[in-house]
Specification:
Elements: E1 10-16, E2 22-28, E3 31-37, E4 53-56, E5 59-65, E6 71-78, E7 87-94, E8 109-112, E9 119-125, E10 131-138, E11 145-152, E12 180-183, E13 189-194, E14 200-205, E15 220-223
Antiparallel strand pairs: 1-2, 2-3, 3-4, 5-6, 6-7, 7-8, 9-10, 10-11, 12-13, 13-14, 14-15
């Protein structure tokens, strides 16, 4: 880990802590870098390796900050131990000084495999501190996309109470992508994303990860955006 801040190709996200310090999330090739700026705009030389930033092998990273100031970074990483180097989910938690948080799955990170290429698109924290990470994967054999969402406990382990009847604690809907996940105050979960026919699919899950049958048809709602015949508009 480590190189020069100037080598970041593009910064794509910004987080602020309670003291007004800024965390810039950047992308350089297949790596994610975090740079911390103090409230006066200067670099925090005490943060991360070499006092400037930390490099993480994650692409298309999503980032959020816990109430205690720890950063969570989630994205896709190449699995070098699998033929063709398929992508897996990678979730990393950093201490406030930029070091890996060893209380998160013992080493500061968690890698999860669902299928061929696993792509993270969204994540959110529940009120109980559990983490929802959402995205999509590709079936090994039929090679079609389907939605996946995993829940991790506050210590970084997979939550086996979430979708216990499905492998890898993931829910799946074939031929659909997942681009957004939200946690309601009652613990229920809202998922959204398009399918391969450009129809937007909204799903609602119960706290345990099962579809909420009280929401539309078996927990799912499909919406078509764009022009529609007048007779179809309510």
């Amino acid at each position: 880990m480590g190189s020069a801040v100037a080598q970041v190709n593009v910064y794509h996200d910004l987080l602020l802590d309670s003291a007004g310090n800024a965390y810039l999330i950047g992308q350089r090739g297949g790596m994610t870098q975090i740079t911390k700026k103090l409230a006066d705009g200067t670099l925090d030389v005490s943060y991360g390796k070499a006092g400037t930033f930390l490099t993480i092998p994650v692409i298309d990273a999503q980032a959020l900050m816990q109430e205690d100031g720890k950063l969570i970074i989630a994205g896709s990483t190449r699995n070098l131990y699998i033929f063709n180097n398929y992508l897996d989910f990678l979730v990393v938690r950093l201490n406030t000084n930029g070091s890996l948080d060893s209380s998160f799955d013992d080493d500061g990170f968690q890698i999860t495999n669902f299928g061929m290429d696993d792509v993270v698109t969204s994540m959110t924290l529940q009120q109980d501190g559990k983490l929802l990470v959402a995205g999509y994967t590709t079936d090994y054999y039929l090679q079609y996309p389907y939605r996946v969402v995993a829940r991790y406990t506050s210590d970084g382990t997979m939550d086996t109470d979430f979708n216990a009847d499905r492998p890898n604690t993931a829910i799946s809907e074939a031929y659909t992508f997942l681009t957004s996940v939200h946690s309601q105050t009652d613990g229920k979960i809202i998922l959204g994303g398009p399918n391969n026919n450009n129809v937007f699919v909204i799903s609602k899950l119960n706290i345990n990860g099962d579809f909420d049958s009280s929401f539309q048809e078996n927990g799912r709602l499909t919406t078509i955006f764009g022009w529609q015949p007048p007779s179809t508009i309510v």
